[in-house]
Specification:
This protein is mainly beta. The chain has two helices and four strands.
Length: about 150
């Protein structure tokens, strides 16, 4: 399951691809590297050298074909958690007391069945590149869930 949170224009983002919350323990112990903020008309080579190769590049069709237009997608893990969730309910026979005649009273009682639910949050950044220059961008969170 994926859910989209929000999008922002590239001009209002100061450090679009800086992910302080997604650092590993080893990265957290190192001094933070300062990356320049993304700005409109930034060169594709500079972005690739500074922020790394995009996870995906989608070519976009243009009616006249004169411009090279691509969407660059960066997908970074922003968080992860595992929870236990009741996914189903079953019944089992159980002792619930003694009857008036002194006999054990056995009845079916509901019992939840639990499964582990893994949740991973990704920060997705999309950049619109026209003729190898940044034109605009947006950013959102995606949530993926899986069960054991």
């Amino acid at each position: 399951m994926k859910s989209r949170s929000h999008t922002l224009p590239v001009l209002s983002l100061l450090a679009l691809l800086a992910f302080p919350g997604a650092a590993s323990a080893a990265e957290a112990s190192r001094p933070a590297r300062t990356k320049p903020p993304l700005t409109q008309f930034m060169a594709a080579d500079f972005i690739r050298d500074t922020y790394g190769k995009p996870n995906e590049i989608r070519p976009m069709k243009q009616p006249d074909g004169r411009l090279k237009v691509e969407q660059w997608l960066y997908r970074r893990r922003a968080g992860e958690t595992t929870t236990q969730t009741a996914s189903n309910q079953t019944t089992i026979p159980a002792f619930i007391g003694i009857t008036g005649t002194g006999q054990p009273n056995i009845a079916d009682v509901p019992v939840p069945e639990y499964r582990l639910k893994h949740i991973v949050i990704y920060q997705v950044t999309a950049l619109l590149m026209i003729d190898d220059q940044l034109t605009s961008g947006s950013q959102w969170l995606e949530r993926e869930e899986s069960y054991d």
